[in-house]
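Exercise: predict the structure of this protein bound to magnesium ion.
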Amino acid sequence: MAAERDIDSLRDALRRFVAERQWERFHEPKDLALAISIEASELAEHFLWKGVDEARGYVREGGHLDEVIEEVADVIIYSLNLMNALERISGKHIDVAKAILDKVGKNAAKYPADAYRNKARLEKP
Ligand SMILES: [Mg+2]
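Solution:
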C-alpha cells in the first residue's frame, strides 16, 4: 500500500489493487453502488436491535470496534472504487476532496449553524 495517506494516494492504491487483478471489467457503477449498500448493511448489522447505550457498550468491548471500523473501511473503499470507475468510464477527472467539501458547503447552507445548533431537526411552525 502507498505510504501517502491523502485521498488521492488512497485512490491510486485502490486503482493499483484493482488493475493488478484485472478487475476493472467487474467494477461497473451499478455493482459498486450495490457493494456500498451491502457493506453499509454489514455495518448496520452490528447495531441491529441494540439500544443506544447497548450499541455504545458494544463498540467498547470484545474487539467489536475493530470489526465496525473494518466495515466503515469497506464502505469507503467501495466508494473510492466507484469514484475511480466513474472517472475511468466518463473520462473526466473527479476531484473527491472537492466533491466532499462542496457537499459540506451545501449542507452548511441547508443547515445553518445558528438555526440547527444542538437540533437534529427544526420544529414545525
Ligand atoms: Mg464488509
